[in-house]
Amino acid sequence: MQQIINFIIKNSYRLLFLLLLGISLTLTIKSHSYHRSEYVNSANSITGAVYKKVNEVNEYLSLKEKNKDLASENALLKELLFNKKDTLITSKTLFRNDLNNYKVMVGKVVKNSFNVRENYITINAGSDKGLKTDMGVINDKGIVGIVEKTSANYATIQSVLNIKSKINAKLKNSNHFGSLVWDGRNVGYAQLIDVPRLASLRKGDSIVTGGNSDIFPENIPIGKIDKIFIDRKTNYYTINIRLFNDMTSLGYVYVIENKKKKEKQQLEAITTAPKK
Amino acid sequence: MNNSVLNSIRFIVFLSLQVLIFNNINLFGYLNPYPYVLFILLYPVNSNKSVLLLGSFALGILLDMFCNSGGIHTTASLILAFIRPTLFKFSFGLSYEYQTVKIADKISPERITLLLLAIFIHHFILFYLEYFRIGLLFTILSRTLLSTLFTFTICLLIIYLIKPNKR
Q: Quick check: A20 and B26 CB within 8 A?
């Protein structure tokens, strides 16, 4: 016993180093698996409050641009409103019935990152406003990402500019599906992989979110086709997409909750479960 | 001024500078300097080493929280704090412990060696853990080299700025 204590006292510096190294390596390795570390993320009150203050200053400097964006979105909504066939129809019935499945909540980006391979965004809305993991996040121009972790007042979002991100997407005019990924290189471009060779593609075609996704509603804009490659190994198309969204400058975002997601997932689970 | 007070102030200043300014530089779209390594390098030679370990661990984990980066800053600064005595021995010779070496004193070749070496090791660990794939070694190395130069420049500027004015 005496010797053990002596050993610990003698090597306390090394042991402290090894202990701390163990903790930090665990955190690093955990962060590379699918879900991030539970405690070390920017959705906590200290870091969230700091980023909120910083953002208040930045926001003041970009008021003009944000006003312009809001005005153009207003114009779009007015256009929808004025083009109704019958002005007596209330706006709820104007949209397709299945859109009522979705609840939309607003949040503001307080921290945006785009210079590493695994990018995360922090917004100032959290579980108090009803945000949960795996909800879709969009803004007026197109998709932004998927909610990763939430705290009471903040949430982190896995940006589309994250090499772990994989989102179901399709060609707007032909309904051929593929997966939207990011290769970690250019912040203006994402890649659509696994598009079948049957699809007819042209440069400039629009890519939108697909109906297979439980997270996003169908037909949310993503981007335009920029370059088309053929993967020699799999014979599928790989398409370079110019994103509609400027991921380096985000303001207000909308978080989308799919109210019938659970029902759909349960049904699918029952269908594919092995029969007894 | 008391050493521990000075170090606490340095801790807070480097942390806030890193979060508020240096993380937002994005030179050429992806290059950021990490001059917070100066906190570890400027720590007095004769002070308690365990406190330095704990300090760099705390600095790293707070940065990781702000950057959403898991534990990469923590690991990199912890390892740098641990190998600091070896680096000192390498650049100043064996007798560094008997004289009070202050990096901020004068920019000499020994100090530049120490700075460059320490920054390179720190950044290599940082980027290696960020990419976490040995296949990307070339990308990691090129990013490490470019960032090292950037951080080194910023560190020199900071040292010149905080250097006590002697006449």
A: no
Inter-chain CB proximity A27 and B71 less than 8 Å = yes
In whole angstroms, give the CA distance from residue B60 to residue B45: 20
The residue type found at A210 is G
Q: Do domains A45-158+250-262 and A167-243 have the same CATH topology?
A: yes
* ipTM score over 0.95, yes or no: no
Tokens standing for residue B65: 């929280």
Q: Report B:84-113 residues touching A (Cβ under 8 A).
A: none
pLDDT in tens, B85-111: 888 888 877 766 655 556 556 667 777
Phi and psi torsions of B2, nearest 5°: -60, 140
Q: Which CATH number fits domain A167-243: 1.10.150.130, 3.40.109.10, 3.50.50.60, 2.40.10.350?
A: 2.40.10.350
The β-bridge partners of B31 are B27
Cross-chain residue pair B132–A36, CB shorter than 8 Å: no
Its pTM stands at: 0.67
Assign domain A45-158+250-262 to a CATH class.
mainly beta
Residues of B in contact with A164 (CB under 8 A): none
Taking only the tens place, the pLDDT of each residue in A192-209 is: 888 888 878 888 888 888
